[in-house]
Amino acid sequence: MQDWVSANGWVGQTVVSVALVCALLAVLVRFSARLPRRELRSMWFFWVLGAMLWLVANIAAWHGEAPWWTQVLDGAAVLIGLASLQILVVLVFRLLMPAVGLGTPRIAQDLTFLALALGAGFYSLSYWGVDPSRIFTTSAVLTAVLAFAMQDTLGNVLGGVVLQLDNSLRVGDMVRVDDISGTVVDVRWRYTAIETADRETVVVPNSWLMKNRFRVLRPKGQDPLVVRRTVFFHVDVNVPPSTVMAVMNQAVADAGIATVSTHRAANSVLLDVTAGYCRYGLRYWLADPDADTPTDSKVRMHVLAALERNGIRLGAVQEQRTMVNDAQAQEAQARLEHSRRLATVQRTALFQGLTVPEQELLAQHLVHAHFVAGGVLTRQGAAAHWLYLIVQGTVSITTEKAGVATRVSELGDGEFFGEVGMLTGEPRGATVTALTDVACYRLDKQGFAQVLMARPEIAQEIAQVIEQRQSGMSAAVDRALMVQTDNRQEALLSRIKHFFGMVG
Q1: What are the extents of the domains in the chain?
Q2: Which among 31, 40, 30 is positioned nearest to 83, based on CA atoms?
């Protein structure tokens, strides 16, 4: 009975200690979302099984009916020890290390638990009088056979360990593996898990990563992470490349796309010249790697609209074919387009005083232009060449005085802007930005000159319309500036009262 008491005392204390730790862990699991409940299932299994063996051995030993109770107690101690080790590892890797800002993959936790379990096993064998080295010596052949049979599994395990030791791959890194791009979410024994922008988890064996090339995207120092993207365009070969590249670069600069980095400017290159077209690559810097394809789409939209506004056609492979022209269909299409232009001129207040022949003459000089939402139609201070007639869409008029930008008004269908610059040659007095996709016509100086030279008195009529419009615009600017001044005065008064502790 004394032997039972001495042997059971250590085991009993162990069980009680582990029970207390498990109770604490249960509380942490209940109130902490960081502790994964699935990882604790094996701990509960070891603990419950060990507690049951301990209870059975104690009952058998108390009645003195079973000589094997000491071996059962040793087994219970081993199971309870494994539960204790897993509790310790989970608390360290899932609570303590994240609390100090250290993130580790799952394989690090598993290797730590394995190392501690092997160490405890060797200690237990020595405690029971078994030399561990003799076990390895007698099972060398079996170990070699198992290693050969599990070489793929061992390769994955060692690959995951090496990737973590040399810091070549970390959880949270943006990586590209072949045609897969995503974020490393975990490194396990057998594989590395990569989550793509489509929220798909791609499993890549660690041994494959060790043998093949992959790309890791990391920020440099304190700079934000940016990724260079390239979108391709086929443009008419007859357009000078310098003109095409300037138009594409300016289109991205004026687009104001939130996911395009403003720290590095976009640039275009001529990649190839083939039958009928030139192939260009527009390279820009992406600020959000998860928004790669949506941002590519927005860049293409702005560039295509800019190319259309500048009369630059897209390229296509040229082929010699014999075709029958449908002259009647083409004539009908031309009449329809002319009627659209004439309707646009007639509903514009600036040209309502003209005769129908004069309006038709202006309609012949209109040029269609398309802008994508967020694009800049014209900037304040820029040289003026065009008068814009809005067919569909909404634009914002913004002026800047003394470094303060003020939104003056918004213009929509049937309205116009840019008349002063086109008629007087003065620089643009405001910046016009597309709030939606905008379809409009542009009229240049040469087109209007034919009407003005035929009937000079038109200039006085148009001058009156422009003067009324400019007066309204100036009043709107003054009101906006007055509101901003009042707001600044109120803000200053509030800070003064707050500084001196005045209430009200």
Answers
A1: 2-138, 164-217, 227-309, 334-484
A2: 40
